[in-house]
């Protein structure tokens, strides 16, 4: 199944903020590249496929929508932290009734991004941000992204990856291209924005994430190479705080 590091690395850009202009969400160039605003929502649509646990069961597919939301956020000195519920990566190894997982993302100087899961057993009714000194929660093994990022760059390698000559077990920037905001209803740019296509390959599976600064995760694919587990989701609606 998807590793904690793999899920973390898919989440760093999901908390991008935007302003409002002429009824649309306008992505603006600003010093704060990835603001973490409470109430921001992303609606994805696509297909999941999975192999039921019962022996002999046939693989199932389902068309569905999935919501991701920032439920709380705070800024303390050089750090910002956001509490996020739901992410397309949570759909890997799907079963009926699946609920979104809880994740904590910390940004340091808007340049380095660290992500960890909420404590085991945390329920959506009792989610809360960590208190105290956020620096104590920043660990090198939780680094999931850094700025700037360039085509061909690799980052986020597993600690036990060893001296491999390929790009397995680390994130690889496959392509940097102009973003196409018309694919997402209500999104416009005040200037051209890049779109990052990032791939994480392992022997049993791979993940492909597409990000646009100021919007966040715009597409996500997960594929297991053995037992059926597939996710193919695209962003269809973006809601900044206060807009429905």
Category by helix and strand content: mainly beta
- Which percent range describes the beta-strand content? 35-45%
Biggest sheet architecture? 12 strands, antiparallel
Q: Could you name the CATH topology?
A: YmcC-like fold
Strand elements, count: 15
Strand adjacency order, main sheet: 8-7-6-5-4-3-15-14-13-12-10-9
Averaging pLDDT over every residue, what do you get?
81
Classify the helix fraction into a percent range: under 10%
What would your notes on this structure say?
Residues 15-23 have low confidence and may be disordered. A hairpin with a 3-residue loop joins β12 and β13. The protein has one domain (4-239): YmcC-like fold. It has one helix at 4-11, and strands spanning 19-21, 24-27, 41-50, 60-76, 79-85, 102-108, 112-117, 143-146, 154-155, 171-178, 187-189, 194-201, 205-212, 216-224, 229-239. The chain is mainly beta and 244 residues long.
Report a brief summary of the structure.
3% of the residues lie in helices and 44% in strands. With 244 residues, the protein is mainly beta.
Brief descriptors of the model:
mainly beta, YmcC-like fold, 12-stranded antiparallel sheet, 3-stranded mixed sheet, globular
Layout of helices and strands:
Layout: H1 4-11, E1 19-21, E2 24-27, E3 41-50, E4 60-76, E5 79-85, E6 102-108, E7 112-117, E8 143-146, E9 154-155, E10 171-178, E11 187-189, E12 194-201, E13 205-212, E14 216-224, E15 229-239
Parallel strand pairs: 2-11
Antiparallel strand pairs: 1-2, 3-4, 3-15, 4-5, 5-6, 6-7, 7-8, 9-10, 10-12, 12-13, 13-14, 14-15
């Amino acid at each position: 199944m998807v590793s904690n590091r793999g899920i973390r690395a898919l989440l760093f850009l999901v908390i991008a903020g935007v302003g409002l202009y002429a009824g649309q969400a306008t992505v603006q160039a600003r010093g704060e590249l990835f603001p973490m605003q409470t109430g921001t929502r992303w609606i994805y649509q696509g297909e999941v496929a999975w192999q039921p646990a019962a022996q002999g069961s046939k693989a199932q597919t389902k068309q569905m929508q999935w919501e991701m939301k920032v439920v709380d956020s705070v800024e303390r000195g050089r750090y910002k932290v956001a509490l996020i519920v739901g992410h397309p990566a949570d759909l890997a190894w799907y079963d009926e009734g699946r609920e979104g997982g809880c994740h904590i993302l910390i940004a340091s100087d808007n340049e380095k991004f660290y992500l960890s899961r909420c404590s085991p057993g945390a329920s959506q009714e009792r989610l809360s941000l960590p208190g105290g000194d956020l620096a104590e929660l920043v660990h090198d093994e939780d680094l999931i992204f850094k700025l700037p990022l360039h085509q061909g760059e690799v980052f986020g390698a597993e600690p036990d990856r060893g001296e491999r000559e390929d790009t397995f077990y680390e994130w690889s920037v496959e392509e940097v291209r102009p973003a196409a905001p018309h694919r997402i209803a209500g999104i416009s740019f005040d200037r051209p924005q890049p779109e990052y296509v990032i791939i994480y390959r392992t022997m049993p599976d791979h993940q492909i994430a597409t990000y646009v600064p100021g919007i966040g995760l715009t597409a996500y694919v997960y594929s297991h190479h053995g037992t059926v587990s597939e996710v193919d989701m695209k962003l269809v609606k973006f809601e900044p705080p206060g807009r429905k």
